Every structure is written in C-alpha cells, then in structure tokens.
Amino acid sequence: MKTIEGTKLLLIDDEPHILQFLELGLTNEGFIVKTALDGLTGINIAHEFQPHIAVIDVMMPGMDGFEVCRLMKKSGAQTSIIMLTAKDDVEDRVKGLNIGADDYVAKPFSFEELLARIHARLRNQFPNLFNEVIYGPFKLNDRKKEFSYLNQTLHLSPTEYELLKYLVMNHGIVLSKATILDRVWGYDFQGDENIVEVYIRSLRDKLHDKNYQVIRTIRGAGYRVDL
To answer: Does the model's pTM come out above 0.70?
Structure first.
C-alpha cells in the first residue's frame, strides 16, 4: 500500500536506537516523521504537528505512554494512536483501549507488522486520504463500502465487510480469534468467539475459497490473508 504524500507520523520512545530505526524506515516509506524521547516533549510536538498517527511506547520514565495517550485524546486531537507494549499483556491492552488507544503492537515486532498496522489505522480513521486502494487481487473503496476480488464485486453484509477489510489490510499477519473480535466486534463483545468461524466460512463461500488459499487457517493461531 502506497503512503499518501503528506501523511504525518509521530514516534515517542525513550530508546534512541528504536527511534532512529523507525524514523529511517518510515521516512523511506514516504511519511513525514517527527520523534520524541519522552512523553512531555511528545505532547508538545503533537500539539503543533497534529500527526495523523502517533506510535507511543508504554514503558517510559516520567510520563508513561498511557498518560501521553490520555492527554492527547483529552485534547480532542484526531490522531490515531498505536501503543508499543513490552509484552502482549491483556491488562495493558485493555487499559490502553479504555483510554483511547486505537491499536497496540507487542515488542519485539517486525517493521512490516508496524507498517501494516499504521496503514490500517490510516484507512480506518482517515478514509478521506484515499480513494480506491488495491491489495493484490482485492480492490477496496471505503467511501462506498465496496470490495471486489479478481474484479468481481463482493456482496457483503456490514460485518463481513469490516472483517474482510481487517484481514486484508493486515495481510501477512496471523490474527487470532480474540484479536479479530477486539477489532471487528469490539473488545466488550460478550458473545462466543466461534462467531468468527461462522463469518470466515461465509467469506470463503463468497470468495469461492474452497481450498482455504485466500483466507488461510493457521492451526492453533488464527487466520491469515497472503497477497
């Protein structure tokens, strides 16, 4: 997915080598990038910079990432926030989501995973930046809520649309049922997680994916779309 020119991204992390690595990689991807080594500096930069995306480390001395997230959301900023956690801890994830975080990535992470999640947040929160986006054989127009596969329009329910969009936009990443429920149905969903299987089955029918080559089942882990 090509980064839209002028997309602004703020990185806040107290580890200089991580900042340098991410700044170089994301600048090469076409983002306008600013960085901060502490929360207070990050808040001040965000106020002036008004980034589309902020990637914030949770574990920082002084003002931690949760407080930075809370203050940025309290200010009314439209910034989409991705939290970096040292471990895939459910309590950290729920706490971050409760104070307004939009996504999280557990360390250690690959650059490709973070980039995919940044693009996913841009698609979800800033659809006006895009018209039609192509992901391999898929074509997505989020303004019209239309999906096509191999140039054939798919007739999807609203939930099927959101599920397929999440899977395709995170292509190459194994997504567990719990993660899919959090992102598509909401982390406060009280139903059985087997509902994911029901919707995956329906999507496979509409994609004529009889051999599970489009939406792959990763045994014991979840689902993955490969493009």
So the answer is: no
Residues 54-104 have pLDDT tens digits of 999 998 989 999 999 999 988 887 899 999 987 666 776 777 777 888 998
- Give the 3-state secondary structure of residue 20: helix
Radius of gyration of the chain (CA): 18
CA angle 52-57-62, nearest 5°? 115
183 touches 160 (CB < 8 A): no
Q: In this structure, what are the phi and psi dihedrals at residue 225, rounded to the nearest 5 degrees?
A: -100, 125
pLDDT at 154: 96
Beta strand extents in 86-225 (DSSP E only)? 103-106, 133-135, 138-141, 146-149, 152-154, 215-218, 222-225
Tokens of 66: 């949760």
Give the Cβ contact number of residue 210 at 10 Å: 9
Q: Which of 30, 32, 39, 25 is closest to 84 using CA atoms?
A: 39
* Phi, psi torsion values for 215, nearest 5 degrees: -105, 105
